[in-house]
Each structure stands twice: as C-alpha cells, then as structure tokens.
Amino acid sequence: MKKIDLLKKIEEAKIKQKAGNSLEANQIFQVLLKSNNDSFDLLYAYGLFCRDLKNFNLAKKVFLNLINKFPSSINPYILLAEILKTENKFQDAEKVLLKAKKIDPNYGDLLYNFALLYFASRNFDYALVYIDKAIKLSINNDIYKLLKSEIYINKFNISEALNILEDLNNNNRIKQDKNKEIRINILLADAFSKKRKYEKAEILLLKLIKKYPRFELAYLNLSIIYNDKNQLSKSIQIIKKGINLSPNFMPFYKNLASFYRNSGQIELAIETNLFIISRNKFDFNSFYELSGIYDFKNHRNELKFLLNTKVEDLNPNSKIYAAFAISNLLHKEGKFKESAKYLKIANDESLKYKKSDLSLKIKHTEFYRSLKIKNSKNKHFKNPSNNIFIVGMPRSGSTLLENILSLNPEVTDMGEVNFLEESIKEAKDFEDVYDLYEKKVINQFQSSIIYTDKSLFNYMYCAVISNFFPKAKIINCIRNPLDNILSIYRANFLKQSFSFSLTDITSLYVHYFETIEEYKIKYGENIYDYYYEDLIENPNDVIPGIINWLDWDWDEKYLSPHQNKRNVYTASSAQIRKKFYSSSIGIWKEYKELLEPAIEIIKTNKILGDKIS
Fold first, then answer.
1. Phi/psi at 149 (nearest 5 deg)?
2. How far is CA 196 from CA 166, 228, 454, 581, in A?
3. Burial letters for 47-83: b for 16+ Cβ neighbours within 10 Å, e otherwise?
4. Is the pLDDT of residue 243 over 60?
5. Residues 515-524: contacts with CB within 8 Å, 24+ apart?
6. Are 481 and 611 a contacting pair, CB within 8 Å?
7. Measured between alpha carbons, how far is residue 497 from residues 362, 369, 501, 613 in Å?
8. pLDDT (tens digit per residue) in 321-362
C-alpha cells in the first residue's frame, strides 16, 4: 500500500475512534497491520490507540516493537515510559528514558518526561533539574513552565510558583488557549490553598465553575479546600453538585467516601466505596478503605474476589492497597500469621518507591535538642491563648485524646496542622514564633479560648513551646512500644515514609522516647504523660486526671468521647466512633515473629525493654 493511502486509512481509524467507534477503528488497524507491520506511522498510531483504550499490555508491546525496529526514534521510548509511569513502575520507566537519553540528551520532550517521572515519584529535586534543562532548550514552552510551577508548589516554594503562574497569566498567548488558562487557574488555586489563602483559591475555582460549569476538576479541588477548612458539609455539597453534572467521574465518589468517613457517616462511606467497586472491581484503594470499616457480610462475592487476588500480578500501586486490605481482613478474622505475610508485602512494595525519611526526622530533632534556647522574660503577650500540644508517635491514642478534650465547648480542635514548624522556619528569632503561630491559627480557625494542636512530631520543639508559648501545655501520648510500632506498620501512612520499615519505625520510636525523656527533665511542669492502655482499661480514673491537670471543670461527658460528632481527618476516624475497646492491647504478641527486628532494637533501651518483657 502506498504511504499516502496508508496515512489516509490511519486517519480514518482515528476519526472512528474519536467518534467513539473503537471497534470499527480496531478493524481498520487490524487490516492494515497484516500487510504494513513495518510502517512506523501505523505502529505508532496503533500504539496510541491501544494506550487510549487503556490496553496497556498491548500498547507496551507495540512501543517495544517500534523501539526494536526504529531504535533512533525518541517518541516510542517516551510513550513506553509514560505507560510504565502510569502503572507506578517508576524504575522501569526511568531505564527506558535513560536509553533514549543516550540517543539524544538534548531532546526537550524527553527531558520534560524525565521531570514528569520524578514528579510522579515525588523526587521533586530531580524533577526540577530536568524541567530547568528542558526550559533552557525551549524558553517559551508554556507547558514546561507550568510543570515547573507545579513542582515548586509541591516543594512548598509557593513564591516561586506564583511568580511563574502570574507571569503566564498575564501573557496574551495564554488567554487564547482554553486548556492552558484552566491549568494556570487550577495551579494558582492550589498554590493559594497551600499558603492557606483559602478565600483566594475559592474565588478562582468558583470563577472557573461559572465559566466552565462542567469542569469536574474545579468541583473536586473546591471540595478539598472546604475539607482543609474543616467545612465537611460544604465539601459534600460541592461534590454532590459535581456528581449531578458528571455522574461517571469516579474521583468525585472517592472524595465523597472520604468525606463521609471523616464526618462520622460510616454507613454512607461504606455504601459509596461499594459503589466504586461495583464500577471497577480492581479499585483496590476502595477495598482498602472498606477493610477498615466493613466486614463484607453482605458482599461475599466482593470479599472472595479480594481474598483470591494474586497480588504479585498487580501493578505496584494496586499491589500495595490490595495487600494492606487483605491483611486488615485477615487480622479481623484472627489469621495473624497470614495477615503478617500480606502486611510485609504491602510495606516492602511501598519502600521501593518511597525512600524512608527516618534520617531526616532524627537529624531535625537533634538540631533542636542541641540548641541552647533561652526565654526572654521581657516579652509581653496580650491575652495569650491556651494552647495544648498533643505530641508523641502516630497511632499512640492521640486522636482519642483530642476527641475527649474537644468535648469542652471552649476548645477548638485544630487537628494535625503544621503551624508550629512553619512558624519556626519563618521566624527571625524564637521570640517571634508565638506571634506567627497565632496569626496562622486566627487565619484558619474561629476565635476560641483553647486550641489543641495534634501535630505529633511537635515533640521535637518542646523547648520552643515551653520557653515561648505562655499558657501552653504539652500532653505526651504513650502506648506499648510494640503495639505502637505494629499499628504504624499496619496504617499505610503515605506521608510518613519511615512507616514502611519496621526497623525505621522502631529506631524513630526509641529516638522519640529518649528525646521526650530529656525534655521532661527540663520542662517537666509543662509535660503530662498520657498512657493509652491505662485510659482504655481505666477511663474513670485516667480521664479525670487529665482534666484535673488541665485545670478544667469536670463533666461526665468526657467519659463518652465516642459520642463526639466532630470531624476527624486521621487514620483513626472510624475507630473513635466506637466505645472504649481493648482488643488492640497486646496484639503485638500475635505478630511476634514479624516483629523480631523491632524487639531487638527496643531492647537497646532498658526502660523500653522492660515494657515488653
């Protein structure tokens, strides 16, 4: 077939596909492939066709075939890497791009795709290096600049991101391109949201919705802003508006399920996740969500499908969520040995793509431990707030504690805000930290008499709190070390990469314990030890003790935190709706074989070693 005729038939197939006639398009491709399987144009178009249909296995084969037949052409490498990236096979994608780089190290789109890959794997420093190289080669490429701004946003270098975005926003060329205009405004809203300038972000998204009323991402991002502002009812409302306009846009349902769970509407969260699975039985993220709140008693077929899934055949992301979900369900059934097996699979797979941040946390803690911090008693604070800092390791009973304290009508529970660390970084002097912190609180929360801050790693800053926060108190949450370590290992903490390694969790636990013990010697009058097991086993004594230490009036309602209707945004959001339960106390003994490496590290500290003997 002559090339011109071949190209006409390829174009005909593309038109059929665009019109939604994928079957007819495929028939055209199949006929052409029988006699033209050495045509670059045909194989390239067919590979894109397979990719668009999400037939990734076939698309990969086509692009590999292209690479073998036309090894000097860069684009097949890029497209193969793009699919591997979509499947979360970051290392394989990187290898493909590195092969292409040997052919042409100065190919702009190749460098851009390196940046995309490192961005997707959250290696933002590498992503920035490559996008800068791409921009240097093509200084007026708006797409490259947009990615650079997004990298800056994720590195929390918001000022640099805003400089790029505002410059692009003032460009007449951009105003004539609908897609670029939309993306700029989405990124601007994201940047303002990261700076907690929620009103600016909200205005931008509402303008987008007014101009493009069927633009799903605007509704989705607006719901996230309301969620961040602790306005879950508005989050749910805007998601439902989006669903009415685009009922087949599945990210709406994922967010809706999360909002339902966080607001305590567990039955609706279950119902929504089951709907997601009914539309896509391979959505293991929803299976994972359900594994923590549902026993599948009325959905035995779905349970059977999950438990019979061969996780080794799944892509990395699905493998992680499926393994965590199966582990959770086996744990509930008391099949702890099998649960441990899947738990290890999930965490080992996560570690392949998320480097542990243990060393960074320890280095950061040591920096503040070594500082000679002295309080200037001359500083005057006008009507200082009563700040309660809840610190400790994750999964140590901190959410339960905040649930108890927030029953006091004078308390605003801020949850896991990052205000203190941000204020310390912004301050020229430690004496400025309190004022900066107060501004952040006032900017996001309504005026209150008492605020609870449950950013647990604030234990690193006990010296700053004790010296520069008038009226502040610190409650240190303590749980049996091995129960605590196991609970962290089971939690799938995406933003805490140390949590995927048992040895790293344990090393951090020991370091935290030794740090807080040192601070208790220096600032003991400001620090109260709350023991999770004691509270569960004897709430009638322990809870009054905490309330008395805070110098609050007693009320019987503090003994019923499960009745608290507040929104909860942590991994414990479902558990705290239940009455006190002791089933997790001492559960580490069922996982003793798995925990052997942790036990050896715990024993290096005599005090902790005695707690597990």
1. -65, -40
2. 18, 9, 18, 37
3. bbbbbeeeeeeebbebbebbbeeeeeebbbbbbbbbb
4. yes
5. 515/365, 515/369, 515/459, 515/460, 516/391, 516/392, 516/459, 516/462, 516/476, 517/607, 518/369, 519/459, 519/462, 519/463, 519/466, 520/476, 522/463, 522/466, 523/462, 523/463, 523/466, 523/474
6. yes
7. 13, 23, 8, 29
8. 999 999 999 999 999 999 999 999 999 999 987 889 999 999
**CA distances for 243 relative to 124, 146, 217, 246, angstroms:** 33, 28, 12, 5
Q: For residue 583, which amino acid is it?
A: S
Q: Which residues contact 170 (CB under 8 A, 6 or more apart)?
A: none
Q: Which two tokens stand for residue 461?
A: 């800053």
Sign of the torsion angle spanned by Cα atoms 461, 464, 467, 473: negative
Burial letters 223-235, b for 16+ CB under 10 A, else e:
bbbbbbbbbbebb
3-state secondary structure of 527: strand
Residues ≥6 apart with Cβ < 8 Å to 31: none
What SS3 state is found at 78? helix
Alpha carbon distance 613, 609 (integer Å): 6
Domain segments of the chain: what residues? 385-577
Asked if residues 530 and 478 have their Cβ atoms less than 8 Å apart, the reply is: yes
Task: Give Cα separations from 22 to 28, 79, 84, 224 (angstroms).
Answer: 10, 20, 23, 35
Superfamily of domain 385-577: P-loop containing nucleotide triphosphate hydrolases (3.40.50.300)
pLDDT exceeds cutoff 70 at 522: yes
